[in-house]
Structures are given as structure tokens and as C-alpha cells.
Backbone:
């Protein structure tokens, strides 16, 4: 298996006041998290959140005085190395690591630091990014704070928090906006910071049926973000597709916010594809298709300053160049135009 003998690392992000610490504090009380270590990054020098997670104080580390997405990444790497060393010496159980970012963090540089480090990549894998979005203030955060949008774009799962102080109509409107920003994300809700521990069951692939039913009506956002989901009816040549994707990210990596999907390469099971900006997670090979009703490739792209038609034209041109032209069923979601 791809992740055998590796420790999952979950990134929990979300804008300031979105309820990250409250949610973690409640979840970590479950006995199934007894072997979980937590790293909490706070922007200021005097940290507080780590003191709120008292249940696992001996396994909670504070990284303060800066954000791990920029000037504190070396501290994050050093802390993960220390955890690994302690675990190998038998001093620390390490079933999972959870990193809670600051409210101003962009998850992409954090992913880059972990996925490109020669030691960490052999001992840790990022199983998912969870983003919290405050139901009471989430719409304003998305409108006024680019960091909030980046957190949603990078997320595999988005949790709408504080639904206990928001109306169902507000929550539903926010859900629709999240779907339009990141069609690949799975969305949950939390009242009083309470969620099931199943939120840590990593999502694998986007729900194409849901994507097909989305209406692109949201969006009073004056932004240049576009999203698209495409479906291939025939197996893809994995080597050729990988070359095309690498070329695309090399040229447009900073503008390609998210690539996520499940790819049929003609084998017994699919390949799970997951990338943020120019960083692609190591592809995960699944043993079979038992969790999917249909056997086909489904891929979501979220990008800035790039029209969906440009991506499709580029892929079609490359497929034509190598003499492989699988049937493509495109779904263009362009809520921000």
C-alpha cells in the first residue's frame, strides 16, 4: 500500500475565529485519538489555543510568533522531525499528527514544505485538509479576505461552524458558495463545535453527480477564480496525462489553486489525484472500484486568471498530439465570471 508505515498528517485551517480550536478540543476527547499529537500555530508570541486543548497537553506543541505558511516553516519541519525521533525511540505514540494553522495561513506553502522534504515525505503523508468556516461571518470573510478563499480552495472537507447561532437559510447560502468555490470539497456542519470523529475519515474523490446538479448562480464575488469538472468516459494513459499535468503546473502552478479527482488508468483500481497549486500529492493507487458506482475518470480544476476552456483546449491538443483522444464529458462551473 502507498501509505504503509507512514503517519497521517491532517491540516486544520480556517479564518480567524472560525472555531478550529473548539472543534479540535471536542474531537480529541475521543479515546480513538489517544495516539494523536497536535501542533498549534499561533501568529502572536503569546499563544493561548494550546492551553485550551488540555486533554492532550503533553502531546500538544505550540509554534508561536509567526505563521507556518511563511516565516515559520522551518520550525514546523523541525517539530515533525522531533516527533518522529521520539516515536522511533518509543517515547511518543504517533498514530496521527494534526496541525492547526493560524487564521491567516495559506495551506499551500505548508503542503509544499512537507511534501518536498526528503525525510518527512518518507514518514508522513497528508491525508486531508479540513477548513472551518464561521456561519455567522463566513460570507464576509470570503468577500473581504483572500486567505479565507485560499483555505476553502485547499480543503478536502469544509466544516461550517457556529450553525447554532445562524439561521438555516444563512447556512444553506454559505454551503452553496463553498460548493461554487471548491466543487471537490465535502461539506459538514457543526453546532457548538460538535462534530463526529468521522470527519477525520479522509474523503477520496469529488462527487460528480453533485457537481452536475450545481447551479452557477452564486457569486456576487468580483474575482477571477474559475472552476471546472471534467469526466472521461474511457481510461486515460496515465503516463501521458501525467506529462500534460506536469507541464500545466510548471507553467501555471501559482494560478492553479486545486486539482483533485479519481483517474481510471485501465487497471483493477483507480488512481486518486490531489494537488494544490504546483504541488501534487503522491498519487494513491486504490485496489478496486468497489466504492464507486461508475468506472470513469472525474477531475476538478480550480484556477485563477485561467478560463475553463483554456484547460480543456490544452488537454485536447495534447491528447491529439500523442494520438490518444478519450471521450470527454465536460462540466464547466464558472460562478465568479
Residues:
Amino acid at each position: 500500500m502507498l501509505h504503509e508505515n507512514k503517519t497521517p498528517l491532517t491540516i486544520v485551517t480556517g479564518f480567524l475565529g472560525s472555531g478550529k480550536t473548539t472543534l479540535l478540543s471536542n474531537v480529541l476527547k475521543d479515546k480513538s485519538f489517544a495516539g494523536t499529537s497536535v501542533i498549534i500555530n499561533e501568529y502572536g508570541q503569546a499563544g493561548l489555543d494550546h492551553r485550551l486543548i488540555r486533554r492532550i497537553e503533553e502531546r500538544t506543541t505550540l509554534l508561536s510568533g509567526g505563521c507556518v505558511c511563511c516565516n515559520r516553516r522551518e520550525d514546523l519541519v523541525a517539530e515533525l522531525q522531533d516527533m518522529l525521533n521520539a516515536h522511533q525511540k518509543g517515547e511518543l505514540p504517533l498514530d496521527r499528527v494534526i496541525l492547526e494553522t493560524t487564521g491567516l495561513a495559506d495551506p499551500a506553502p505548508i503542503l509544499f514544505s512537507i511534501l518536498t522534504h526528503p525525510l518527512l515525505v518518507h514518514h508522513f503523508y497528508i491525508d486531508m485538509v479540513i477548513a472551518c468556516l464561521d456561519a455567522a461571518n463566513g460570507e464576509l470573510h470570503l468577500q473581504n479576505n483572500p486567505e479565507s478563499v485560499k483555505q476553502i480552495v485547499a480543503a478536502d472537507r469544509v466544516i461550517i461552524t457556529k450553525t447554532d447561532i445562524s439561521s438555516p437559510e444563512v447556512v444553506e447560502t454559505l454551503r452553496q458558495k463553498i460548493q461554487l468555490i471548491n466543487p471537490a470539497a465535502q461539506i459538514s456542519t457543526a453546532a457548538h463545535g460538535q462534530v463526529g470523529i468521522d470527519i477525520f475519515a479522509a474523503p477520496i474523490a469529488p462527487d460528480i453527480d453533485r457537481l452536475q446538479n450545481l447551479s452557477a448562480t452564486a457569486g456576487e464575488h468580483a474575482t477571477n477564480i474559475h472552476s471546472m469538472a471534467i469526466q472521461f468516459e474511457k481510461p486515460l494513459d496515465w503516463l501521458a496525462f501525467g506529462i500534460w499535468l506536469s507541464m500545466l503546473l510548471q507553467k501555471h502552478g501559482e494560478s492553479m489553486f486545486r486539482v483533485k479527482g479519481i483517474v481510471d488508468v485501465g487497471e483493477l483500481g483507480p488512481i486518486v489525484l490531489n494537488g494544490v497549486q504546483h504541488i501534487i500529492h503522491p498519487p494513491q493507487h486504490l485496489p478496486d472500484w468497489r466504492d464507486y458506482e461508475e468506472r470513469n475518470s472525474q477531475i476538478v480544476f480550480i484556477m485563477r486568471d485561467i478560463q475553463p476552456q483554456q484547460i480543456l483546449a490544452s488537454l485536447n491538443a495534447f491528447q491529439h498530439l500523442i494520438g490518444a483522444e478519450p471521450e470527454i464529458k465536460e462540466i464547466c462551473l464558472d460562478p465568479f465570471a
Notes: The first helix runs from residue 20 to 27. The two ends are 42 Å apart (CA to CA).
